[in-house]
Amino acid sequence: MSEEQPSVPVLIRPSDNPASRSGLLRLLVFPFAIYSVWMIVTALFEGDLRLFLSADPRGIIVYTVFACIITGMILPVYCIRESFITGAVNMFQIGFWPVHRTFYACALTTFFGYMAMVLFSPFGTDTSAFGYAFLLLLPTAIASVMVCWVLLGTHVQAFVRGGGTVISIAAGSLITAWLFCITSFVHSPPVHLQPALAGFLVLGLAAAVFFFAIRDVYAASIFVTFGLTFVMADSIGVSGTQAAMPALYGSALLGIITLIGIHLYFVRNFRTVKLPA
Prior knowledge:
By secondary structure, this protein is mainly alpha-helical. It has helices at residues 21-47, 51-54, 57-86, 99-120, 127-159, 165-182, 193-214, 217-231, 241-269.
């Protein structure tokens, strides 16, 4: 998982003008099209079926494969790959770093997330219910990070980069926070919709700031998973928990393996080099 020595270096050509037709298509149109497809597939395989409330094991696996892995994780790789080739984004900007940095970022994120769970858990003292929710929502969180921030956030920033760092970060954070908030409409509906919308917006803003500050896709996925367990607590059923556990472990493992596979693909095919100041 280290970027140090990719086996297949590629020729990077200069990035074309973001305002050009190709730049507009590559940095905005295609990413937003992928976001729209991901929303539709999520609605079909999760929201319309009230999947998180019913906790159907087969439905969880199908949703994870089609909505989270194929649409939410693999499909964005096409746009990101093209942006790598044109120089619009690099490995560090999309959140893939050497193993030791990722380890520390994930460890700290998990620690503070666990502390928040202990102090403010919506499931009270039932840690098993929180663990169930965490496993259930982990693939959704990984796909959300990949689509909303790794893809859309970095590409929006690249499109407005000419306006300066402040405008780039502000645009990437605000736009992606609202896009993440909109995803609440395609998930299993919570008991109280208005507080859930506010929760998604706050989580989206916090996750955007976290991602653009830390720039680590693994830590951001953990951060969003903890956040989703709070804002989607009313959307998660507790019946049939034991029967669904094998599917939850399997779907979480599939999501993690896919993310690592994407990381290894970029490491193998692209190189990001830090230049001296």
